[in-house]
Design brief:
Length: 475
């Protein structure tokens, strides 16, 4: 048996192909299936099965896409009550792919319908060699049980059983292949390592070392990070079967004059995906700012209304196409086009623009020292805020700015800060949409402020998957 892991940055998602001589299965696929087709072709495999561990909340799955392209059988939990045709599996069921025997364990907790797939490679022996456990068990963490309102304690209790009475009964050498890694909000504190073993997790996973059921329930239902809005939508879409990508409208370049007319439609929003510095210099009034190089998919799914058509402003057609792929991954399928020629063409057409003043760390420090009159809104998560913040700051996480802005004075000078400048630009764009007249973004955020020697180091900002690369909350 050969296993190939596919890791999707930005949503920190791990999917897998595992196969023998001529056939293979894909586990928890992304919606963009070309990568699986390419790997299967490279390995000389026919994709015969698509295994879903659960109805994913943080992304739209590619199970329907793969079935359409390959004719593969979708394997899904019977308790998910999926609307599409599938091989419905429950506890104790098994099936074979060449010499591999795949046994089903019901492992609810993260979601009610969750299963894990335990694989025995009979060409090697008669004991399990690996488990594809979805979002039940991660490296250093376990799946959060609080995504279903009013059911957190019930699901946390079921998760205890799934972990201690099922997964921990597997041999220590059994390899563990989870569906997410560091940067995902499907858990609280996943490690950056992308696979593990039962024995390793038995030793080092904090949750597995909580032996008392009530203690684990308490640990997993207190102080969890907020769940993005699209988490409540994607599960339903995955259960009924998402639209095939080929039936979605193609992305088109829209000249400024036509773009301007579309902007006037209340059923349409503008999403500016350029870097926050470019957005600050000049942008279309009312646009959302979500930098394509930030945690784009998560914050788009979190902040953007799903019932609106989306117009993109980008630096290039390629960036617009890339953004459309990410938006489709989080159930934002109403992407209709991008501004042809970008903001330069918009300005040359004489159309109106706004700007967002960028404040440097020294400028902010001078304002703090001079005790100037302004409101400083820190839009980081509460855990980040508690790790170190500027004294006069008030903490409103970026996703809450959509509603909590009503408690702020729209006429006051308002500075917005986060860890780097990305989330604060998102929040500042929302404030501008709601008629805040004097908004400023702190460029470099608390990372820059601390680097300049004006504040304490932020432990979270120093983590390697937060300070570099994709798949982190701020960048």
């Amino acid at each position: 048996m050969i296993i190939r892991q596919i890791f999707t940055d930005g949503i920190a998602h791990s999917s897998y192909l595992f196969g023998g001589n001529t056939t293979c299965a894909v586990v928890d696929p992304d919606r963009d299936i070309d990568v699986y087709m390419d790997v299967a072709s490279e390995m000389g495999w026919e994709i015969t099965h698509v295994l879903e561990t659960h109805l994913h909340a943080d992304f739209i799955s590619g199970h329907i896409e793969l079935r359409e392209r390959t004719g593969a059988t979708i394997v899904a939990p019977a308790s998910a009550n999926c609307s599409f045709d599938s091989m419905e599996v429950s506890e104790g069921d098994s099936f074979e792919i060449e010499d591999m025997v795949i046994e089903v364990l019901e492992t609810p907790g993260h979601t009610p319908e969750h299963v894990s797939y335990v694989v025995t490679d009979r060409s090697r022996g008669e004991v399990p060699v690996c488990v594809f456990c979805g979002d039940t068990l991660f490296v250093g963490d376990v799946g959060r049980p609080d995504l279903f309102p009013g059911r957190a304690e019930e699901l946390a209790s079921k998760l205890y059983e799934s972990l201690h009475e099922k997964l921990l009964k597997l041999p220590d050498h059994c390899e563990v292949y989870p569906a997410h890694g560091a940067g995902s909000l499907c858990g609280r504190s996943m490690a950056a390592k992308r696979s593990t073993t039962i024995g390793y997790e038995r030793l080092y996973n904090y949750a597995l070392n909580i032996s008392d059921r009530e203690d684990l329930i308490h640990s997993l239902t207190e102080n969890m990070p907020n769940a993005p809005d699209h988490f409540s939508r994607c599960s339903e879409v995955n259960g009924r079967g998402p639209e095939l990508l080929v039936v979605l409208p193609p992305l088109k370049a829209i000249p400024p004059a036509d773009f301007s007319k579309l902007v006037e439609d209340p059923g349409t929003i503008v999403l500016d995906i350029r870097c926050y510095e470019a957005f600050g210099g000049r942008h279309i009034p009312g646009a959302y700012s979500i930098d394509l190089k930030s945690n784009f998919a998560t914050f788009s799914g979190w902040l953007l209304p799903p019932d609106k058509n989306i117009l993109l402003v980008s630096d290039s057609p390629d960036h617009a196409s890339e953004a459309a792929v990410w938006l489709h991954r989080v159930d934002l399928d109403r992407v209709i086009g991008f501004l042809e020629g970008g903001m330069h063409a918009w300005a040359m057409a004489g159309l109106p623009t706004e700007h967002l003043c960028q404040v440097s760390s020294p400028e902010l420090d001078n304002m703090v020292r001079d005790d100037e009159e302004f409101i400083l809104v820190d839009v980081r998560a509460p855990s980040e805020f508690d790790s170190g913040h500027i004294d006069k700051a008030i903490n409103i996480p970026v996703e809450e700015v959509r509603y909590s802005y009503k408690g702020l004075d729209p006429e006051a000078k308002t500075l917005v800060i986060c860890g780097s400048g990305h989330r604060s630009s998102m929040a500042a764009s929302i404030l501008q949409q709601n008629n805040f007249s004097d908004v400023h973004n702190v460029s470099g955020g608390m990372t820059g402020y601390n680097a300049a020697g004006f504040g304490p180091d932020c432990p979270l900002c120093a983590l390697p998957w937060i300070s570099s690369g994709k798949g982190k909350m701020d960048e």
